[in-house]
Design a protein that fits this description.
Blueprint lengths: L2 H12 L2 H20 L5 H33 L4
Helix pairs in contact: 1-3, 2-3
């Protein structure tokens, strides 16, 4: 897959309302599960926190790909 294709797909995912709604719902559920886990259930808390981090990393990666392409388009030729 070429870089231009990656950028186009990253933008499509980032701008898709259903995709964002699903990620929001999954992230909220993981946060609630982490907060409401038993105080002694460290493994469950860690698993839910890892899920939240994974979702946030995915969003960050999509934004980075989109912004990187935008910055590349605005650069002056060498």
């Amino acid at each position: 897959m070429r870089d231009a294709e990656k950028v186009a797909l990253a933008r499509a995912l980032r701008d898709n309302p259903l995709f964002n709604m699903l990620l929001d719902d999954i992230e909220a559920a993981a946060i609630n599960a982490c907060v409401n886990a038993k105080a002694t259930d460290h493994e469950a808390r860690a698993a839910h926190a890892a899920e939240v981090r994974a979702i946030r990393n995915l969003r960050s990666k999509l934004n980075h790909l989109s912004e990187e392409a935008k910055a590349g388009a605005n650069r002056a030729p060498a």
